[in-house]
Write a structure and sequence with these properties.
This protein is of the alpha/beta class. Helices cover about 35% and strands about 20% of the residues. Strand 5 and strand 6 form a beta hairpin. The chain binds zinc ion (ZN). Zinc ion binds next to helix 3.
Length: about 400
């Protein structure tokens, strides 16, 4: 038996006035997902455990089948894993955005989508000027860089517990109240402060200004943690897997799970992504792996934009160009289970993530239908069963021969 997860990031939502009081999943035309519901089991599950932040890190960890309470150490370590970087026991890894601060405000958390080449030059300058044996700057893709901080145990714990704010949460706002806060905050605040003159003097920034682009005026440190506490799928289930996603974070979770990370040209994390390429790569990977995780980012991005029309389009594209061909391949193979799920709610109204239950559908060999008809929040709620521990779904999918509702007792 093989397993395929089709993850529509942030697909779930609340009823939206612009869609006649229906959710985007309810409003959108989704014949393939509806067929998966009709052929399999559907219901609600909670990818975000109570009290944890509703992010793609926690949500995707859950859908990968890992208990976030046991495994999650921070967002940065998962992204670092995608670059093959694992912090040592005496280290923390921080996400190190290059950002544009202006007039006391977070003008741009991407430094105007700075290029990877410019970013590499700037991170190199930071290494020379303020890097030490204990402070290491590692360039990544565009504004998404890393900073590794080594400290003795007495300092490491307070740094681990610092309250750091994602810069995309304070766009256009005064940033001073969102600087890292807590015991030993001065260590991290001093690094941010020290980056500013180094960046201001750099030729790459002067060239950007001359070209009418925003300069990277500062680093912004957040998402810190030690090595993720994850065992691989091989160790847990005795199977191997592959992941395909445009997002470093999701690929990083895959790497921690011991997966092959599939490289597909033209994947963007948006509506213009190469859906067909992702599906082809995923189906081909099922020839050599037992488990494949295919992640699509567009529903989340369009919800952050607050665009009901685009979120509906993202869901309909996901249905027609991802779910439909995968279900067809599953029918042809006869040995493939397919799970369709979001990783959290992304609310069009608030333009941000929310915790709470989201719908799933699971179909394939040995799965007994539970009588629902459509893939959306209200229909899934009719099943009347909630899985508060969302991370139990995938282990059930992999391990259980005969699946009837409820999947987990
Ligand atoms: Zn997400």
């Amino acid at each position: 038996m093989k397993s395929l997860v089709l993850l529509g990031d942030g697909m779930a939502d609340f009823p939206v006035p612009e869609l006649g009081g229906r959710t985007p999943l309810d409003y959108a035309r989704t014949p393939a997902m509806d067929a998966a519901v009709a052929q399999g089991v559907s219901g609600l599950f909670c990818p975000i455990p109570d009290g944890l932040p509703a992010g793609s890190d926690i949500g995707n960890l859950s859908v990968f089948g890992y208990d976030p309470r046991q495994t999650f150490t921070g967002r940065a370590p998962l992204e670092a894993a995608n670059q093959g970087i694992v912090p040592n026991d005496d280290e923390l890894v921080f996400r190190c955005n290059l950002v544009t601060l202006e007039d006391g405000k977070m003008r741009d958390f991407t430094a105007d989508h700075i290029t990877s080449e410019e970013s590499r030059a700037l991170m190199g300058a930071l290494s020379e000027a303020i890097g030490t044996a204990d402070i290491r700057f590692v360039p990544g893709v565009s504004y998404r860089n890393l900073c590794l901080v080594r400290a003795e145990a007495a300092a490491l714990e307070p740094l681990r517990r610092l309250r750091c704010t994602p810069p995309h949460d304070i766009i256009g706002q005064n940033y001073t109240s969102s600087l890292p806060a807590g015991d030993r905050q001065e260590t991290v605040r001093a690094l941010i402060e020290a980056s500013r003159p180094v960046l201001a003097a750099h030729p790459a920034n002067r060239a950007r200004a001359a070209a009418g682009k925003l300069p990277a005026t500062s680093i912004w440190l957040w998402g810190q943690g030690g090595a993720p506490r994850m065992t691989t799928y091989k160790e847990r289930f005795g199977v191997t897997g592959a992941v395909v996603s445009a997002v470093d974070l999701v690929n990083g979770i895959g790497r921690c799970a011991g997966f092959e990370v599939l490289r597909v040209p033209g994947i963007t994390g948006y509506l213009d992504t190469n859906y067909e390429g992702k599906v082809a790569a995923a189906l081909e990977a099922l020839e050599r792996h037992d488990f494949v995780y295919l992640h699509v980012e567009a529903p989340d991005e369009t919800a952050h934009e607050g665009r009901p029309d685009l979120k509906v389009q993202a869901i309909e594209d996901f249905d027609r160009r991802v779910v439909a061909p995968c279900l067809e391949a599953a029918r042809a193979r006869g040995d493939l289970r397919v799970l369709i799920a979001p990783d959290h709610v992304t609310s069009l109204a608030s333009r941000t993530h929310a915790p709470g239950p989201v719908p799933f559908a699971l179909c394939g060999p040995g799965v007994r239908p539970n009588g629902l008809r459509a893939f959306h929040e209200a229909e899934a709620a009719r099943a009347g069963v909630l899985y508060p521990d969302g991370y139990t779904l995938v282990p059930a999918m992999i391990r259980t021969q005969e699946i009837a509702f409820p999947l987990v007792r």
